[in-house]
Amino acid sequence: MEFVSPEGLRLDGRRPMEMRQIRGEIGAVAKADGSAFFEMGNTKVIAAVYGPREVENRSQQISDQALVRCEYTMANFSTGDRVRKPKGDRRSTEISLVIRQTMEACILTHLMPRSQIDIFVQVLQADGGTRSACINAATLALADAGIPMRDLVTSCSAGYLNSTPLLDLNYVEDSAGGPDVTVGILPKLDKVTLLQMDAKLPMDIFENVMQLAIEGCKAIANYIRELLLENTKQLEYRRGP
Amino acid sequence: MRGLQLSLNQTQKLRLQRALDQLESLSSKANSNASVAVADTIPVNYEDCVLKGHGTLELDGEVVATLCGVVERVNKLVYVRTLRARYKPETGDIIVGRVTEIAPKRWRLDINFSQDAVLMLSSMNLPDGIQRRRTAVDELNMRSIFEENDIVCAEVRGFQHDGSLHLQARSQKYGKLERGQVLTISPYLVKRRKQHLHYLEEFGVDLILGCNGFIWVGEHVEAKGTLIEDQTDKAEQLNTKSSSSTFMSLEEQERTYTSLETRQNICRIANAVRVLANLGFSVTVEVIKETVYLSSSLNLDIHEMLGSEFYVLVAEGEATRKSMFTKKKG
């Protein structure tokens, strides 16, 4: 199948190095300490953060740092065919773990000893790159909850199809079976916190693809930063002196 | 916008936007752009040494924010004041909390902090008002003072060595709160002031603005007076108890009855707080009172206060109030 037309356009009309439209919104869940909505093209996710709060299960309490928990779910209506998935299937457990580890790397957990932070992410509409969208939404929600972080974490995916590196794969490109590299970075520190790939790629091509994904992450980081700054200013001027 | 799911019509939208724009222009005049997001570099003068406070981190010789908020500078100290975050206790704060658990010699209270706070039996006045050592009997009767899910007003005593937060309630003004409602708002909307316990005489309502963002609106209870009076009261009560028990229960009923008017006032004040908090305006007694007067002068029903028109009116009122304030200053 042809994923990049001779004119250099992808199936959804993007250029190979072009990202989908991204949009974020802070404060999507009223009762949560922090929450956000994040959209990458047709992929839409919602994240809610509760905490730092008292640890529910005393035996899990850590005396010198916070416990971070994460739960990833996909809404039944998020995919084309409506399938009822059992809670905690392999895929969602794995993604929960990935998101938890990525977020834990940036949260300054030692500042909140003996407490727990819960991150809930739910996919409302899936069109490839749900992992990345969830991480971006979780970052926004954590910042909204006022949880101290080393840096923002942003994530973006990239692939390699028709011997062209492609940024931000959608569902059709994702299911083509080619390599799909999901990268999560700390933009300020310039460090990688997440790197996943489920195919083989030659070394030199991999570097190109990863560089492309990192560029995508940086673009998202800029957007998220603007969004947070705007939100902070709003809160401040409304509150007044 | 958080918590603000209103169906505004076109004019209301424009009016709200104009009021908010006015507020924005006022604040930008007042303070320079000191807002930061996570991982922003905070500009500091490296020639004099800098003390890094909360919400900052040193990275390659730069001071970097770890929170979203406003940069504050006090002499050499640089810190980031967060806006939306959980409560951060300071010694002496007056707070409202909910009892989550009764443990040996202590209650655990949920106060919107990262851990539950501890109220020791020994750090509160006993109901009989006598100063003495707490015995095992007192410990067994702890549920007669506070039970689970009771709302309690107390003061922050401080952090213990093990990092737990302790509270105290060594005055008659603290203690269990009954016959009213508790509202949860973001703690940054409550400013620390001299007075947090208010008695609104014209409504017959007690208002407690807890520093942790828990707001109590309830029927006014007379302060129990001094210790000695208390004891005489007790003696009298004992006498009446012995004389007739049926009379006592009637009195009890009368004591727990709240008049309709008071209940309506409570709801009106609570809705005023809800409107202000949803709009993100800081919550003080003056503003709450003003909002309540505004609603009653418009002859609005209590439930109509949560309608979109009233939100717009409150926002406009806030904008004019702030502009008046800055004019007076300038």
Automatic annotation (TrEMBL), chain A:
> Pfam families from the entry?
RNase_PH (PF01138), RNase_PH_C (PF03725)
Q: Where in the cell is it found?
A: Cytoplasm; Nucleus, Nucleolus
Q: Which GO cellular component terms, listed alphabetically, does the Swiss-Prot or TrEMBL entry include?
A: cytoplasmic exosome (RNase complex); nuclear exosome (RNase complex); nucleolus
GO terms for biological process, alphabetical: nuclear mRNA surveillance; poly(A)-dependent snoRNA 3'-end processing; rRNA catabolic process; U4 snRNA 3'-end processing
CDD domains, alphabetized: RNase_PH_RRP41
Record bears the keyword Cytoplasm: yes
Q: Indicate what this protein is called per its UniProt record.
A: Exosome complex component RRP41 homolog
Automatic annotation (TrEMBL), chain B:
Q: Which compartment or compartments is the protein found in?
A: Nucleus
Q: What is its main location?
A: nucleus
Q: Which GO terms describe its cellular component?
A: cytoplasmic exosome (RNase complex); nuclear exosome (RNase complex)
Entry keyword RNA-binding: yes
Matching entries from Pfam families are given as: KH_6, S1_RRP4
Example of a GO MF term? RNA binding
Q: Name one GO biological process term.
A: TRAMP-dependent tRNA surveillance pathway
Q: Does the keyword rRNA processing apply?
A: yes
Where does the record place a coiled coil? Answer: none
Task: Name the domain of life.
Answer: Eukaryota
The alphabetized UniProt keywords are: Exosome, Nucleus, RNA-binding, rRNA processing
Question: Which ranges carry the S1 motif domain?
Answer: 90-170
InterPro entries with a match to the protein in the record: Exosome_RNA_bind1/RRP40/RRP4, KH_dom_type_1, KH_dom_type_1_sf, NA-bd_OB-fold, S1_domain, S1_RRP4
PANTHER family, sorted? EXOSOME COMPLEX COMPONENT RRP4, PNAS-3 RELATED
Family per similarity comment: Belongs to the RRP4 family.
Give the protein's recorded name: S1 motif domain-containing protein
Origin species, per record, is Vitis rotundifolia
